Amino acid sequence: MKNLILFVFVVLLCITACGQISAPSAVQKAFDAKFPKAEKLKWEQEEANEWEAEFRLDGKEMTASFDSSGKWLETETEVKKKDLPSEVFKSLSIEFDGFEIDEVEFVEKPDFTGYEIALEKEETEVEVLITKAGEITIKKVDVEDEDDEEGDEEDDDDDEKDE
Questions:
Q1: Which of 50, 63, 105, 162 could, after both became Cys, cross-link 46 (CB 3.0–4.6 A)?
Q2: CA-CA distance, 102 to 118, in Å (whole number)?
Q3: Per-residue DSSP letters for 89-151?
Q4: What is the pLDDT of residues 78-127, one digit of tens each?
């Protein structure tokens, strides 16, 4: 019984310690300067040189990414489908007829401002970047097919061309 209690205590301690990640000071400073009114901040290290902050600002769920030196990489804000501009809906209905919008985020990067939209149709999932004016760039196409693994590899090659 003592071993079980000790084990549970150690697991909880690890979970608590892992959940309290903090970014390097340069990243923290850059974040604080860009988002001084952010609330409920949580940090995750995405890659060796990339930190992502999850937070709330003005009632919206957001994420922002920075490199380890504090350089801002991108910001994403959750958006409701109904809040998309009509030009975006028009372009999506022409280019992706029959697809359903699954998730929408407003994306700001140094070289792009617009929407990242996840679309689904049967076994096909598409993630696109689209400007407010409705100009589409396909980011990723994924077709779920358990019987045809070679087809998935070919799709992955096509994805790289689209990016």
A1: 50
A2: 5
A3: HHHHHHHTTTPEEEEEEEEEETTEEEEEEEEEETTEEEEEEE-TT--EEEEEEEE--TT-HHH
A4: 999 999 999 999 999 999 999 999 999 999 999 999 999 999 999 999 99
**Cα–Cα distance measured from residue 38 to residue 59, given in angstroms and rounded to the nearest whole number:** 10
Which tokens in the block code for residue 127? 């993630």
CA 111 from centroid of its chain's CA atoms: 17
pTM: 0.72
Structure-token pair, residue 142 = 């994924």
Q: Are strands 112-121 and 124-130 parallel, antiparallel or unpaired?
A: antiparallel
